[in-house]
């Protein structure tokens, strides 16, 4: 495994960067627009996964909750997870400002390891991870860890930029891929818009 950064150092560099930018994160108009389009794409492509009476969702690497706020009306509850205390604080501040109870939408600051009893043993119907995969030191490790939080037959939805467009520029057609992993045996990639 030479050439791999230590996940912990990688995580901690990310945490520092996002802590510094948390308060301005939502002020970028393209971020809001992107979250809106992504939320629409998920609802249009996977309507059967979202049920406002029953769907328990995790927003992994949730940041300030842009995608959570788009999807919140369509699911029963959302738990945001992020390693940045600054992001989690913004997420929860915005949720409570919108009058949402913690049981409906709340973020926790934790680095998930996939061990038992994390998140009090909660399991989720859907886990969404938007625009964060390119930050992870190991996609395989991250996917394996967050998949342990899915209920049987649950779905992991991953949306990310298709090539390295750092500093948040979006390439002209705004193309994003949603990967839908269902019950761990089939993986489809769809161009959603």
From TrEMBL:
Looking at the UniProt entry, the stretches that span the membrane are: none
What keyword terms does UniProt attach to this protein?
Transferase
Protein's UniProt keywords contain Transferase = yes
Q: Pfam families this protein is in?
A: Methyltransf_11
* Gene Ontology molecular function: S-adenosylmethionine-dependent methyltransferase activity
Q: Does this entry carry the keyword rRNA processing? A: no
SUPFAM superfamilies reported in the protein's UniProt record: S-adenosyl-L-methionine-dependent methyltransferases
> What sequence ranges are listed for the domain Methyltransferase type?
59-157
Which protein, by its recorded name, is this? Methyltransferase type 11 domain-containing protein
Originating species: Postia placenta MAD-698-R-SB12
């Amino acid at each position: 495994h030479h050439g791999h950064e230590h996940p912990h150092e990688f995580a901690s560099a990310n945490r520092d960067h996002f802590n510094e930018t948390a308060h301005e994160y939502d002020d970028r108009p393209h971020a809001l627009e992107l979250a809106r389009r992504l939320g629409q794409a998920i609802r249009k492509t996977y309507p059967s996964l979202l049920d406002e009476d029953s769907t328990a969702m995790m927003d992994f690497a949730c940041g300030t909750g842009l995608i959570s706020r788009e999807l919140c009306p369509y699911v029963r509850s959302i738990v945001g997870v992020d390693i940045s205390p600054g992001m989690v604080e913004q997420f929860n501040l915005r949720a409570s400002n919108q009058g949402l109870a913690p049981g409906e939408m709340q973020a926790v600051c934790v680095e998930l390891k996939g061990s038992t009893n994390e998140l009090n043993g909660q399991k989720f119907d859907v886990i969404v991870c938007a625009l964060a995969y390119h930050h992870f030191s190991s996609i395989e490790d991250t996917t394996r860890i967050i998949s342990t939080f899915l209920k049987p037959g649950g779905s992991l939805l991953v949306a990310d930029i298709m090539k390295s467009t750092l500093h948040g520029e979006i390439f002209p057609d705004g193309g994003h891929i949603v990967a839908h992993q269902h019950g761990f045996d089939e993986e489809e990639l769809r161009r959603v818009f």
